[in-house]
Hints:
The protein is mostly beta strands. It has helices spanning 4-11, 15-18, 261-272, and strands at residues 34-40, 49-58, 63-71, 74-83, 89-96, 100-102, 106-109, 115-121, 129-140, 143-151, 158-165, 172-183, 197-201, 205-207, 213-215, 217-222, 240-247, 250-257. Strand 17 (240-247) and strand 18 (250-257) form a beta hairpin. The longest helix is centred in the C-terminal third of the chain and has 12 residues, at 261-272.
Amino acid sequence: xxxxxxxxxxxxxxxxxxxxxxxxxxxxxxxxxxxxxxxxxxxxxxxxxxxxxxxxxxxxxxxxxxxxxxxxxxxxxxxxxxxxxxxxxxxxxxxxxxxxxxxxxxxxxxxxxxxxxxxxxxxxxxxxxxxxxxxxxxxxxxxxxxxxxxxxxxxxxxxxxxxxxxxxxxxxxxxxxxxxxxxxxxxxxxxxxxxxxxxxxxxxxxxxxxxxxxxxxxxxxxxxxxxxxxxxxxxxxxxxxxxxxxxxxxxxxxxxxxxxxxxxxxxxxxxxxx
Length: 274
């Protein structure tokens, strides 16, 4: 049985075809090249929306930095910032089992599950903190709409797209909220050759149906079980580090992903000491 986290990981391999002109003979994806951040919410409740601050001080090719969630009644989706295999960057909003989309650049995906995704081009600036939002939209005869938004410093909030799910998926489970940093590019000869990236995640906020916010706390780093990149010579996995790091004055978590152990630690130390 494939867990929700594993499905997120496997599905991200699809973005090679979603964001570029991938060849049918494309090489195998680097496996288990990811790290997570889990959050604790003080009250077990349901939410009608989510938001979170993201800081990407160092992007890398074929990388994705996301906020993930599940609906109370089933699988949810993810929203975040991404780079493709050429280094071009974008903001992306995706939902599992979505049946319709509204937006300038939305399409279906399939593989380890099906859904729809929307994106908007974005030149990620390493000195800016971005905020992503997921809000509940209108319901119609075919289901419930959810909307993904991007907020960049000094610019109006931008709609990435809207995706429709079944009518029962009206609320989010805050306990399911987590972050994900992944290298989804081609397999490398040694895990230390995965390009080095850094992403910091501020505490996510879940909005109750009455508009009252509920903020996540106590961030905890996590890696995929097994498949660790310990010596740098393993074929699968990736060097990954977690470090507490305030984001916009709130307690957050930094993920450094890729490179060899020395380079990974040096990047984390530089960012924490900034």
